[in-house]
Amino acid sequence: MEEKHKSSIESWTLLALINRDLDDQDYNNALLLSERLYAIDNDNSHFKYVYAKSLFSISDYTACYTIIKSDQSIPCLNLFAKCCLELGLIEESQDKQRTLWQEGTQAIQTALRSNALPKEVYWGDELASVTNRQSMPSEASLCNLLGDLYVKLDNVTAASKYYYKCLKINPYKISAYINLCDIAADSNIIADKLKNEIFVDFDVSKTNLSRSPHTYLPVLPSKDAPGITFLPEISPSNVVTNSSSVPAIKYYQNISVKQLRALIKYSPSISDDDDNDENKRFAYIRFQLAKDALIKTVSGDIEQMTAAEAYKNKHGLRKKAPAGIEHKLEVQLSDMDEQTDYHLDKEIIESIDKDHPPRVVTEEHEDFTFDIPTKKRIKVSSSENSAVGSFFLPQSDSHQVNQQTNAEIIKGMNKVLDLLSIIVSGYVYQSLYQCGRAALELQKLDDRQYNTARVLCILGKSYYDASDYKTAVPFFRQAFMIAPWFCDGVPEYSTCLCYLEMEKELNLLAYQMRGNKSHIYEYYITAANWSKCAINSNEAAEWFQKAIKYDPNRAYAYALLGYEENEKNNFLGAKQMFAKSIGANKRSYIAWCGMALAYHNMEEFIQAKTLLYEAARLHPRHPVLLAKLAEVLYELEEYEEAEKYIDRSLAIRADPANQELKENIDRWTARNR
Fold this sequence. Notes:
The protein has helices at about 10-25, 25-40, 45-55, 60-70, 75-90, 95-115, 125, 140-150, 155-170, 175-180, 185, 190-200, 255-260, 275-280, 285-315, 340-355, 380-390, 405-430, 435-440, 445-450, 455-465, 470-480, 490-500, 505-515, 520-535, 540-550, 555-565, 570-585, 590-600, 605-620, 625-635, 640-650, 655-670. By secondary structure, the chain is mainly alpha-helical. The protein folds into 3 domains: about 10-200, Serine Threonine Protein Phosphatase 5, Tetratricopeptide repeat, CATH 1.25.40; about 230-265 and about 355-485, Alpha Horseshoe (Serine Threonine Protein Phosphatase 5, Tetratricopeptide repeat), CATH 1.25.40.10; about 290-315 and about 485-670, Tetratricopeptide repeat domain (Serine Threonine Protein Phosphatase 5, Tetratricopeptide repeat). The longest helix is centred in the middle third of the chain and has 31 residues, at about 285-315.
């Protein structure tokens, strides 16, 4: 495989770990590692192929298709054609099916015409596959796949031609023989005759048992190749506060990594203080033991309300709800004026670009891609570098292992480990709702690793969970712009846009998600949020119901539908949805808070307080949740307790409505003193 890019020791270390995970069928971990490999050099065909292969292994065919669509290397062409075949199988439109399968046939035809494809079968390579990995697909495998695609296109003649060619090259391709027999009635192929032509003993004098002289691998590690670098650790005290607003970047306009890093300065004052006092009050064990009982109580209440509603309907005490009319749900792209507020956006972007990202002030660096000097660098000669590279070759006994080589290999392994530890730490802080710590931890990454969809989505979700939707949007937007196949953050992204009433961007997101058949759940939620924001009808609820029906094991759609029912004063329906959301994920603070809101709207404040305590235990830093708990405590005349929570909410984020509640609480507290 001809490769113009250079490879580093870190990249080869990642390659080894990814391939091991693929062999172990640990596909999720292989995907996490391949994202890091792809970030090192996203133009490298082999790195692109490994990333796409990991996505294909978890059946994310849309992402795989998108990443390698324009790559002309034979492995990528082969994998691209496989994606076309799979996507066609799940596509509803026959025209789109045919287009996908035609794209696949064109890709395989291109691969078969390539001079890089071996025209001779080296059976030494084929039989050595027990221990050696083959990076180049065989001509027989390409012909077999091409036959499958032609069958889907109803071109039986072409299909039989390539199945037959596949078998002539490699008679062990039993699937090609079976498929050829299946279409024999339409292809004038006689199965018995075919069997006699294909399954013929090998002749020792005519069979090439040697190994191929070509090595279809990325180039060996080089010291000057792009690898993994880190930035200095940042203390929270060094972060500069800036009162400017977040840039309203429209229609997926490019934003630099420097601008994204600067957004941390515009975040609210999110408290990441020690939780000892909170944990003392709401002891984990106490609430874990009480949680099942609380869920049982809520479930019993829902059953009683359901029975009461059924009784009223049966005896004519309430008019029966009209049968629901199923709408033809469809997302259309609205007209957009891309020049709207462009100059204002440009001014905001330029104002941010002038600021320095929040870094420890030492010396200026233009690109932030430097190594942190920790240990004395080891000088490696060209012969020693060759020894490092040969470490990864199958012929392991052909090179001399020495202490210098071992040190370089260990160094590369440790760099990969350090990279993963930063990302894992950022994810941990995000899952603990410590937005500030997550942002500072991920600032250590260099720009190549920082400007990746997974890292940006971690930051976006951190700000989303902090109820700072304005700051979350640019991170989600950038993630989707650079990797539209990566849809983990799309549900939260669309919810942020809905809350901010950013109808045009939400419409664009929903429209682009419409064709992603690998992320239908995410598309339904995006379409629901768009309907809620733009159409303001019952369609949003119908979209949420479609998401639930598609994947009833995920909690988010239940919760969003619960809030929809709450707004319609359908408290029974809201409780039912929140109960199902909690059943899908007992740690969903959104569902617990929603359930409490339903009880609050029914003026059942004691039950609402109990539910909000659990929500606050799960997420002790959400300003809206804390304010709602203070409001309920205020209604119950527990003013001292209410004061604690409203103070904490305002310390995280100032809000006029919460400030008014604070003043009311202070007045009652002053009277009682």
